[in-house]
Amino acid sequence: MLIKPINGQDASNLCKEIIVALPEWFGVDDCNQKYINGVASTECFAGFINNKAVALIAIRYHFDQCAEIWWLGSQPAFHGSGVGSALLQEAESAAVQKGFKYMLVHTLDIGSGDSAYEKTYRFYQKNGYRAFLGPHMEDRKDYTLIYMMKTF
Q1: What angle do CA 92, 136, 65 make, to 5 degrees?
Q2: I need a labelling partner for 145 at 20 to 30 A (CA). Which of 98, 117, 123, 124 fits?
Q3: What string of pLDDT tens digits covers the 152 residues of the chain?
């Protein structure tokens, strides 16, 4: 496994490939296009297995303290392979090197009833992230978004 920076159109293309493979996570076309376009202007790392890019993380930085996992996904065949955790570690290391103190992500609450996002919640929890705020979309009762955070 290899983790390395990726940017621009390469990041957008990889994001699109992963989104298409994960409709249970990425089923809202408007949001998907925002992600595909947006990763090109964020700091991204790709996970490679057997010289093929199979996972992507996009990070945004806020103020002088907090880094945000803006997008993260991997091809379904590589769920559980460790590539997602390796991407998190690389992104966290980059944030620490820049002097950031926290990494946050927003995702669906474990009680949302969405089995895909229950896996996402458990993935972040396994990697040291803890829920600290939510739900924050009271006007959308079908979405119980929460924030999870890890301190460095």
Answers
A1: 30
A2: 98
A3: 999 999 999 999 999 999 999 998 888 888 899 999 999 999 999 999 999 999 999 999 999 999 999 999 999 999 999 999 999 999 999 999 999 999 999 988 877 677 888 899 999 999 999 998 776 555 555 667 889 999 99
State how many domains the chain has: 1
User: In this structure, how many other beta carbons lie within 10 angstroms of the beta carbon of residue 128?
Assistant: 14
| pTM score of the predicted model | 0.91
Look up residue 39 and give its DSSP letter: G
CA dist 52 → 49, 55, 56 (Å): 5, 9, 12
CATH number for the domain harbouring residue 130: 3.40.630.30
| Residue type (1 letter), 44 | C
Paired tokens of 123: 């993935």
Q: What is the domain range of residue 30?
A: 2-151
Q: Are 105 and 129 in contact (CB under 8 A)?
A: yes
Cα dihedral: 28, 33, 35, 40 (round 10): 170
